[in-house]
Amino acid sequence: MKIIRLCLQSITAFCLLAAAYADSTQLMSVQVKTTNLREAPSFVGKAGAALSYGDRVEVIGTQGPWSKVIAPGNRAGWVHTSALSAKKIVLKSGQETARTKASNDELALAGKGFNSDVEGEFKKQHRDIDFTCIDRMEKMRVASADMQAFLKEGSVVPKEGGAQ
Amino acid sequence: MNIRTTFNVQRSMFNVQLWISGIFFIFALGTARPQLLDALSDIGAEIGKQTGAITPEQAESIKRAGKAVDKTFEEITPEQEYYIGRTVGAVIINKYRPYDNDTANRYLNQLGQTLAQFSDQPETFGGYHFLLMDSGEINAFSAPGGLVFISRGMLSCCRNEDALAAVLAHEIGHVQHKHGLQAIKKSRLNSAFTILATESAKQFGGQDLKDLTTAFEGTIGDITSTMMNSGYARSCEREADKSAVEILKRAGYDPNGLVAMLREMQKQLKPGGLDFAKTHPSPDSRIEDISKAIGPYEQVKMPVKRQMRFLQSTGGMPQ
Questions:
Q1: CB B36, CB A28: distance < 8 Å
Q2: Which of residues 237-296 of B touch A (CB under 8 A)?
Q3: Which of A72, B62, B86, B125 is most enclosed, with most CB atoms within 10 A?
Q4: What distance in Å separates the CA atoms of residue A96 and residue A110, rounded to the nearest whole number?
Q5: Range of the domain at B86
């Protein structure tokens, strides 16, 4: 009887934990430097307001790889799920981790690990490796509207629903 | 055998079954989300401990094992991947040098960044960026996070935009599947995560920074050595080709462009070369695999405007 009781207690604990886990996935963080809210679940179309690294969004629905979210400022729109993380991303300036007991599975400290400091240290030790070209490369950005124009000009017709 | 002994035997058997089931359960969930995996391993260990099937020490050991299972390249955050990618890119471009042609590089980015939107990983921390390398070797590299490098030699294997799109889509496939990060040695990851585990909210400094930079250097070495010397596993190349076909189809390009490019590459590759001849499966074997997905080769039909812009943007380059 004791074993059965223990098993039942464990199953109950598991269910409670699963429910808590499922609930925690409703809030997600932007895990890329910047992305845009979109009016529809597709990159084809107008890009809306910009979201930044660490911004918290509430996921209210999904469609394929897209999440419908409510962003700060009560703005609704779609974000590709690859731009989101279930972890709360704490930017350095916040320093909330020092005061919370949350585990690393719930929190990610921005700038932790391989970061600009490590890159700086690497540069000091490898002065022959020049990053100028990489910095220049990262400035080559093609706006969403230009991508649409590029496809149209070349008569490239995306598969219906193909824009993932 | 009295009733009490029978009960004890049954209880022991039940405990053993519970113990084995727990182990299977924890390992079967090796691919589950890390948070869930950890929580379940904790619960599994707790059940075992409470039923007396295992000692508290064994329970702790299971908890630790459960947490260690997911310490793989997937633990690397997009931000860390970005910094790894920047340095991998810097190493590559210091060896091959950039080809300074604004028109060609702008075109390459228009095409590449558009294609990336149709991949399964359209969003990376710093985004996708593309650059031509000033080298006649047939080569292409993709650093983690989305920095992609294409040589003039590789460009010369492309007779039209669909073929070039295929080259870029293949590299995007490598980024999407994190093949670069997979090249990091497990021991390196373990040492890096050991340093990270001791770090809480404090800023890195002193010895921590030095240790982390050493792990970082090793990480960069693992990735660049795989990319430039040994090449990815054949399964990774097949995976990147498969993703390339999917990206091309979604975007509206003809996947036959990939076959057309490989046919041209087959003609141009020099046996014993230090480029794709060394690091990639033969074009013929790749064509064989791709044909299984898209059927027999059909010549790519090119709209005039698309071919015009391809030639205008890439023409006149020294071979």
A1: no
A2: 249-253
A3: B86
A4: 11
A5: 78-179+230-314
Do B172 and B192 have their domain in common?
Answer: no
Q: Which of B86, B130, B217, B224 is the best mutation test for A, with the most CBs of A within 10 A?
A: B86
- β-pairing verdict for A66-71 and A75-80: antiparallel
Helical ranges in chain A per DSSP H: 2-24, 116-125, 132-138, 144-153
Task: Identify the H or E element spanning B263.
Answer: helix B256-268
Same domain, B251 and B131: yes
**End position of a domain, from candidates B171, B199, B220:** B220
Query: Nearest residue on chain A to B51, judged by CA atoms?
Result: A3
Q: Are A30 and A71 in contact (CB under 8 A)?
A: no
Is B59 part of the contact surface with chain A (CB cutoff 8 Å)? no
Residue B240 within any structural domain of the chain: yes
* B319 occurs within a structural domain: no
User: Nearest residue on chain A to B40, judged by CA atoms?
Assistant: A14
Instruction: Name which of B76, B131, B306 is nearest A154 (Cβ-Cβ).
Output: B306
Q: What is the ipTM for the molecules in this complex?
A: 0.79
- Distances in Å between the Cα of B233 and the Cα atoms of B22, B225, B230 are 34, 13, 9
* Structure tokens that stand for B227 in this block: 């990319």
Q: Is the pLDDT higher at B246 or at A25? A: B246
**Same domain (yes/no): B113, B163:** yes
Same-domain check for residues B162 and B26:
no
- Its pTM stands at 0.78
Mutate one of B37, B213, B222, B247 to test the A interface: name it (highest A CB count within 10 A): B213
Domain boundary among B43, B70, B97: B70
Q: What would the CATH number be for the domain defined by A2-153? A: 2.30.30.40
Residue B254 in any domain: the answer is yes
| Interface size, chain A vs chain B, as Cβ–Cβ contacts under 8 Å | 202
Q: Do B78 and A17 touch (CB under 8 A)?
A: no
Say how many domains are in chain B: 3
Alpha-carbon distance A164 to nearest alpha carbon in chain B (angstroms): 5
Per residue in B275-303, pLDDT (tens digit) is 777 788 889 999 999 999 999 999 999 99
